[in-house]
Amino acid sequence: MLFPAIQPGNTWKLPVSDLHTLYIEESGDPEGVPVVFLHGGPGGACEPTHRRFFDPERYRIILFDQRGCGKSRPHASLEENTTWDLVGDLEKIRKFLEIDQWVVFGGSWGSTLALAYAQTHPQRVLGLILRGIFLGRDEDVHWFFQGEAARIFPEAWQHFIEPIPPDERDNIVAAYYQRLTSNNDIVRMGAAKAWSIWEGSSVTLLPDKNVVNYFSDPHIALSIARIECHYFCNNCFLRLNQIIEDCDKIRDIPGFIVHGRYDMVCPVDQAVLLNQHWSHARLRVIPDGGHAVSEPGIANALVDSCNSMLDILA
After folding, report:
1. pLDDT digit string (tens) for 117-148?
2. Which of 3, 34, 196, 299 has the maximum number of C-beta atoms within 10 A of its C-beta?
3. Residues 171-177: contacts with CB under 8 Å, at least 24 apart
């Protein structure tokens, strides 16, 4: 059960480079345990519901939109937008808010970013709460964008590949990148909506029109498609198998991993592999869950994990 809806107590627009300014908000107890929420994508955005995983009487809740996302500016920008720019932004936000250590909560791409940050700055992380693990490897991108997941969602896949001529379909991500960086607004937006709708059609265990409609929104679609494609064309700016190889750096950090058994965007083997290399994490596989954070079993498990993290830290 999610906590009741709350409004942010403070909001900021923080310049993190000459180009990028991030939207940041804070809610909950200003004296509570600091927790930072990392949204998915890359290219997604924070939503009011994301505040509701955390007990507002015990957590100091920090949400922000990553570079090019949501209310951050410039929108959908690929310039100065890498994993390591985002890791650096987390440190800038932490220092700006005068936080010494915090809990890091991340789902999907947010789990990748949370792990990259924790492995770079383990002394700043009190604990990790992760959902829908994405390890950022070639095989993880290939599963969803080169045909394997298409066998589960063949109708949605046909819509996804429609903008790409047959002779370019041996590398769907590269073909989409050409269109998503086109100077033609119609080509760019058409590709963005096709890319984003493919994702929205696949994230839930059962079809959910509300989720598809969210991914269809032009503002959301453009940032998700452009930034995801940019990261995937660059191996998420990670070396080969980096997240798993660097798990020793977070071996003493407590953590919770929540993953849907029938996650078709990020198959559950990624969560199991991570857990095998990170012994301080507790893995919970949701038997009736897909990938979406909105699914009841996943949402309830995340709330439980957030409450349990407070008990561990106490």
Report:
1. 999 999 999 999 999 999 999 999 999 999 89
2. 196
3. 171/146, 172/145, 172/146, 173/141, 173/145, 173/146, 173/229, 173/232, 173/233, 174/233, 176/225, 176/229, 177/229, 177/230, 177/233
